[in-house]
UniProtKB/TrEMBL annotation:
Biased composition (Pro residues): 519-577, 608-619
Protein species of origin: Aphanomyces stellatus
Name assigned to this protein: Aste57867_18930 protein
Sequence ranges of Basic and acidic residues compositional bias: 1-12
Region annotation Disordered: where it falls in the sequence: 1-66, 514-627
Lineage per the UniProt record: Eukaryota, Sar, Stramenopiles, Oomycota, Saprolegniomycetes
InterPro entries noted in UniProt: Formin_homology_domain
Length: 644
């Protein structure tokens, strides 16, 4: 040790002192309010460059300059002009100029007081401006104004500012016998602390209690009780530790109150301040959060305390989520922490629980997310049914509510309660501005080519061809129709083409019906008996005779006689065809066929014959609701010109 000390002394002796010429100039030091002494050879310090040289900064006008300007301007004006100028300054909230205007004019000073201007400033809640006016115009002698000023500060809750202005403006503020020396009330430290306690500002009151040494009048325990009652947990805990009152105020009880109020951050802070980490461990805190149902804080502190590997704690958290009905979080974190493989926390089971608790949005979300649609088909149908049911019930509820609100009794009560503010209920009128129709084109059906099949001429074409070319047995035999004798025509052997124009009308009408759906042919049955005659009241008159204004057509060839016209009572209207949903009737025998058109219709559609033109229309219940639009060929019934 001695050798190390000797070496250090020798090293100090070797260092020689330098002269003042070789030493660098000393630094300028500032000690208190003394100005630093600059060395002789110090360089001139350049002033800092201005940031914005282009900006025109007007220096603040001092009170002396304002008063001088006001006195010079007021000396040249009449009293009426002075009062008008003062009124303009006050209405424009230029209170400093108004105070200077009053002080600079002898006429205004006799009529108005500066205290009135300060009162107007306090009405505007501009406390800093009011204090500045009192200080600049030396209004501290007006103790009534000072008392009113501090009272307004206390009413606004600015206790720190009230104490500062009271110390500055109230004479002998901290003296004990100052209030008894005067007959009027004054602000003292005790009255200010009482105002703080009344406003429940316990921390501020405790601060000034210690500052003014008033612990005997205001004990600390009362402030701690007030802080606990106001749930200022951290402030109460710090006061207990500062004044060492752990024996009277249990720290553990205070922490339990914080945990019960879910003040987790404050509780953890107090646990660290009171060094109670051995009692309140991280697992204990997380368990308290789980029991309270605060799962967001639970997940946060699970990560903060590194407790995510504690399977029992995580299992207890998910069970508590199910108990509180938090199925979304339960399914999510059971999958995240790997507990979905357990039977108790299986995702399908949790989805079923969500459906039972009517949390359909959660169930549908995870059914879609986990792709379990095939497993929950019945549940999805049940959810859709329940959703529609709830929508119907809600609409019914809103309709009943709207009906109740628009009832005369309810409107009368509303008119009585509101009086002049009552407004008549507006009637909602639905206005359709535009209707958009979307037409979805159908794909064309695949049709078989018909070019290879020869086109067979229709019955009318063959008849016209036969009439134009003359009678030929081969062409007539190809018709394959059996005709009755000519005695049924009633005109001997002379027939014309006009006698069967009604048959062509029936053919035209037959084309208006659609082609029947091909069905299996009905079994052969015996011909039905003739229909019974209709009663006299339902007998329909015969049609009026048709008058033709064109020359008669040439007679039919005599080789094939025309069919006879029907005689006797006309048949009743038959039921519609099988196309409209009715069963087809058995075919009529060839002997009962009335005309060529009906014969053609019977061979083509295998349906009962059509009614004659003079039959009544079908009943409304038998007619289809939507008419079928079919192609009707245009048939010309005009007679052909005679061949010469």
């Amino acid at each position: 040790m001695s050798s190390l000390e000797d070496k250090g002394d020798a090293a100090k002796k070797k260092v020689g002192w330098k002269s003042n010429e070789t030493l660098p100039p000393p630094r300028t030091r500032s000690r208190g309010k003394d100005k630093p002494v600059a060395p002789a050879n110090a360089k001139e310090v350049t002033p800092p460059r201005a940031r914005n040289n282009n900006r025109d900064r007007t220096p603040p006008i001092s009170s002396n300059v304002r008063n001088m300007t006001a006195s010079l301007a007021s000396s040249k004006l009449a009293p009426a002009d002075l009062e008008q100028q003062l009124q303009e300054l006050l209405t424009s909230c230029r209170f400093e100029d108004a105070a200077a205007w009053i002080k600079g004019s002898a006429y205004l000073s006799e009529k108005y007081k500066l205290a009135d201007v300060v009162r107007l400033v306090l009405d505007q809640r501009q406390f800093d401006l009011a204090g500045r006016l009192i200080r600049e115009h030396k209004l501290a002698d007006n103790q009534q104004l000072v008392t009113f000023f501090i009272m307004e500060l206390v009413r606004s809750g600015r206790f720190h500012l009230a104490v500062r202005y009271a110390q500055e403006l109230v004479p002998e503020f901290n003296a004990g016998d100052a209030a008894s020396a005067t007959n009027r009330p004054m602000w003292t430290p005790m009255t200010l602390i009482k105002a703080m306690i009344r406003a429940q500002q316990y921390k501020t009151g405790l601060k000034y209690t210690k500052q003014f040494n008033l612990e005997a009048e205001f004990p600390v325990k009362k402030f701690i009780q007030g802080l606990v009652q106001e749930k200022a947990w951290v402030d109460a805990f710090s006061v207990i530790l500062e004044h060492k009152l752990e024996a009277e105020f249990s720290v553990d009880l205070l922490i339990d109150n914080m945990l019960g109020a879910r003040q987790w951050s404050s509780a953890i802070k107090c646990i660290k301040m009171g060094k109670r980490g051995d009692v309140y461990t991280g697992k204990v805190l997380v368990l308290r959060m789980i029991l309270c149902g605060d799962f967001l804080s639970t997940l946060t502190f699970l990560k903060e305390f590194d407790l995510t590997d504690d399977v029992a704690l995580v299992r207890q958290m998910i069970s508590s989520m199910l108990r509180y009905g938090e199925f979304y979080k339960a399914i999510k974190y059971s999958i995240k922490f790997g507990l979905s493989t357990e039977p108790a926390f299986d995702s399908a089971r949790l989805i079923e629980l969500a459906v039972d608790r009517k949390q359909y949005h959660v169930a549908r979300l995870y059914i879609k997310k986990l792709k379990l649609e095939a497993q929950f088909q019945d549940d999805l149908r049940h959810i859709a049914h329940e959703k529609d049911d709830m929508l119907v019930r809600f609409r019914d509820f809103m309709a009943r509510k709207r009906q109740r609100q628009r009832s005369p009794e309810f409107q009368a009560r509303l008119r009585l309660c509101l009086g002049g503010d009552y407004e008549e209920p507006e009637e909602e009128v639905e206005v359709v501005l535009s209707v958009e129709e979307e037409v979805v084109p159908r794909k064309p059906r695949a049709t078989t080519p018909v070019a290879s099949t020869p086109k067979t001429p229709s019955f009318l074409e063959r008849l016209r061809m036969m009439d134009s070319s003359g009678p030929s047995p081969s062409s007539l035999s190809s018709l394959n129709f059996s005709f009755d004798s000519l005695n049924g025509l009633g005109n001997g052997g002379s027939t014309s083409f006009a006698d069967i124009d009604r048959s062509f009308a029936d053919v035209d009408r037959a084309f208006a019906y659609p082609t029947a759906v091909p069905q299996q042919p009905p079994p052969r049955m015996s011909p039905p008996p003739p229909p019974p005659p209709l009663p006299p009241q339902q007998h329909y008159p015969p049609p009026p005779p048709q008058q033709h204004h064109y020359p008669p057509q040439p007679p039919l060839p005599m080789s094939m006689p025309p069919p006879p016209l029907p005689r006797g009572t006309p048949y009743a209207p038959p039921p519609p065809s099988a196309y409209y949903g009715y069963q087809p009737q058995p075919p009529m025998p060839s002997s009962s066929v009335a005309s060529l058109a009906m014969q053609f219709h019977a061979h083509q559609m295998q349906a009962p014959p059509l009614p004659p033109p003079h039959a009544p229309p079908l009943p409304s219940q038998a007619m289809p609701t939507k008419p079928h639009r079919a192609f009707v060929p245009s048939l010309s019934l005009k007679p052909f010109p005679k061949q010469q």
